[in-house]
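Appendix B. Raw example, untouched.
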Amino acid sequence: MNDPHKPRITITYCRQCQWLLHAGWMAQERHSTFADDLGGVTLVPATGGIFQIRYEGDLLWDRKRDGGFPDAKTLKQRVPGSTRSRARARPHRPRLTQDDRRAVQSIAFSRSRW
């Protein structure tokens, strides 16, 4: 569902270069991983060899500036879901410390033995 209060990702791609499939794959990756945290992923056709990914208007990837297309790992590091951008993408969720993670793992382990 389109929520105007959630962040949006916009992927602008060159239709003359036939980069729709590449843009669609990246959109699907972001949307399937963060469907509950994103307001939407928008594909914008353009011309002139452009391929840009924006998060709330901020340029995260530019094919010309960054040298080609991002792989899945690089894309995940630059858009919501990476450790660096988790607070920005999910400000309503608390950040877990290393001790918190250990406690959660311990609880999960002890429950699995029941």
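End of appendix B.
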